[in-house]
Amino acid sequence: MPISGHTLNGVLLLIVILASLSVVTSRHQARKSFLALQQEKQRAQQMEVEWGQLQLEQSTWAAPARIEKIAAQHLQMQLPQTGQVKFISAQQYSSKTSGAQAR
Questions:
Q1: Percentage of residues in the chain with pLDDT exceeding 90?
Q2: Under a CB-based contact definition with an 8 Å cutoff, are residues 71 and 77 in contact?
Q3: CA 86 to chain centre
Q4: Model pTM?
Q5: What is the C-alpha to C-alpha distance for residues 6 and 12, in angstroms, rounded to an integer?
Q6: Is the pLDDT confidence value at 100 over 80?
Q7: CA-to-CA distance for 52 and 48, rounded, in angstroms?
Q8: What are phi and psi of 76, to 5 degrees?
């Protein structure tokens, strides 16, 4: 059964419409994806700024002078006197611990 000219034109028109719709849909998806990418890049940049602020805050909280002040004021701690400090070499420490483990 031969295909008439009107039927062929109708099929071709349908194919063109479907192709056009697929192009529009893919362009729309590409735009949505691009916008999502831009938002994530902006979020990443905000997180980097926040990370820098947190590192600065941590260094402030962990400052040796601040720790020493809190230890002295709130915990009544003080630096040991010179005679109270004893130095232990790593060899002495390892031989003592290995002897204790052997028992």
A1: 59
A2: yes
A3: 43
A4: 0.52
A5: 10
A6: no
A7: 6
A8: 50, 40
Q: What is the pLDDT of residues 64-96, one digit of tens each?
A: 889 899 999 999 998 888 888 888 888 766 776
Return the SS3 of 97.
helix
CA–CA separation, 67 and 61 (whole Å): 8
CA 101, 102, 103: angle at the middle one, nearest 5? Answer: 90
DSSP type of residue 75: S
**Distances in Å between the alpha carbon of 33 and those of 28, 46, 59, 96, 101?**
9, 20, 39, 64, 62
C-beta separation of 63 from 69 below 8 A: no
pLDDT for residue 26 is more than 80: yes
> What is the rounded distance in angstroms from the CA atom of residue 23 to the CA atom of residue 18?
9
**32 phi and psi, to 5 degrees?**
-60, -40
The residue behind tokens 């402030």 is 60
